Structure formats: structure tokens, C-alpha cells
Amino acid sequence: MDRLLEVKDLSVYYGVIQALKGISFHVDKGEVVALIGANGAGKTTTLHTLSQLIGADGGSIEYKGHNLTKTPNHKIVELGMVQVPEGRRVFAEMTVLQNLKMGAYTRKDKAEIEETLEKIYKRFPRLEERKNQLAGTLSGGEQQMLAMGRALMSHPEIILMDEPSMGLSPIFVNEIFKIIEDVNKDGVTVLLVEQNAKKALSIANRAYVLETGAIVKEGDAKELLNDESIKKAYLGE
Ligand SMILES: Nc1ncnc2c1ncn2[C@@H]1O[C@H](COP(=O)(O)OP(=O)(O)OP(=O)(O)O)[C@@H](O)[C@H]1O
Ligand SMILES: [Mg+2]
Known about the structure:
Strand content: 25-35%
Order of helices and strands: EEEHEEHEHHHHEHEHEEHH
Distance between the termini: 34 Å
CATH architecture: 3-Layer(aba) Sandwich
Bound molecules: adenosine-5'-triphosphate, magnesium ion
Structural class: alpha/beta
């Protein structure tokens, strides 16, 4: 399989606190890889470091032959890696359409951007219906869709999703996970950070378990779903 992303011995400090203690993991082209863990485990820190919103203090991040620890965020988006942030972070005072267009800021070809927009409207009919609505007035689930749509506007090869199901009703959670699966089927690789471990493991190929800044377990997602210690700690069983 094609290695898309290879992270080795990554460490990050916030002041004297070490948030990532030398973690290593990889993502192959076409996979859905889940990163699960409790509050404060370092999941968001991991994604922010991949996107270079936070600088690494040690280790390496290799993506398609590029060393991302030396690459500015906008360049990373251009290279095909985009993050859907925790808590959506849509531009509340802008319309749905304006938010989507912002997602294409690294692209130049207007016709191609328009084509992507049409695809996104097909995937998220709610967004098309609400294209002139201010993003801040969307429901939580709709904002999550918008955040995903905005990320897809960059035409990514890999999408980093930070807790897409957070705060959503079960119906919306199912809808969002279905969309993640569909996006993956269309060829986009997914690194999925979730506290909803059950859902994440049910759609992932492989998974890593992060505990206080260290990867304590990794493996086939279906096997982890049946792992007794994972069941107890993360699946509420
Ligand atoms: N800007 C910061 N300054 C100092 N400490 C931070 C900062 N951001 C995160 N931390 C700390 O780093 C650790 C990891 O935080 P992180 O946000 O990566 O966790 P998380 O796994 O995403 O948690 P959650 O599930 O609650 O989103 C936590 O102990 C947190 O308090
Ligand atoms: Mg987080």
C-alpha cells in the first residue's frame, strides 16, 4: 500500500508540559485511520502539529516525500492535506457559500472550483438549500457539514477530522459518519479523531489509542472493537 503520511517520534511541549511524548503512526492512501483517546490525551495537538498550526519539538512528519515540520500551513493545504477543526470554526458572519469559497483559497482555477462546489452541494443538499444563510445561524450538525464542505473545497487527498460528532444528536452523528465513509469511498484518505470510539472504530480500517501523549495501542479497527481493555475504557461496555 502507498504510504501517505509517516509520523515518527513526534513530540510537542506546551511550556514544560509534554503533550506528545514521541508518537509514531502512519496513514496509507485510501485508509480511514482513527485516533481515539480521552479528553486531554493529545488528539487535537496531534492534528494541529500535522497541519503545522503548532510546531513540533522533536520527530518528523513525512507526507508524500515532504517534511511537514518545515512547511507552512497554507502550503500543506496546497499539498492536499486539510484539517476540519474541532468545534467546526465556521465563519459565523459569512454565508454558507462564502465559507465554502474560503475553503478553496489555495486554488486558482475558477472552473475547477465551481465543479467542486457542485459536487459538495450534491453531497450536502442542506448546504445548497442554505447557501445564502449566515453560517452562525446553522444548526450544529449543519455547521459540521459546512466545515467538512469547506475542507473539501481545497480538493484534499487526506482530511484530518477533529471530533466531527461532538455535540450532535444521534441522527446527525450517523449522517456525518455516513458522509465520512462516502468521502473516503470517493478516494479521500481520512485521519479521524474521535471520542465516540465505537463509531470511529466501526468505520475505520485501523486505529491508534492515545493516552496522555503516548500511543498505547494500535491495530485493526474491528479487532480493537472487540478488545476487552478498549471496551472497558472507551466503549462503555
Ligand atoms: N495551548 C495550550 N497551552 C498549554 N497546554 C495545552 C494547550 N493546548 C493543549 N494543552 C494541553 O495539552 C494536552 C492535550 O490537549 P489536546 O487538546 O491535544 O487534547 P485532546 O485529546 O484533543 O482532548 P479533547 O478530547 O478534550 O479535545 C492537555 O493536557 C491540554 O491541557
Ligand atoms: Mg481535542
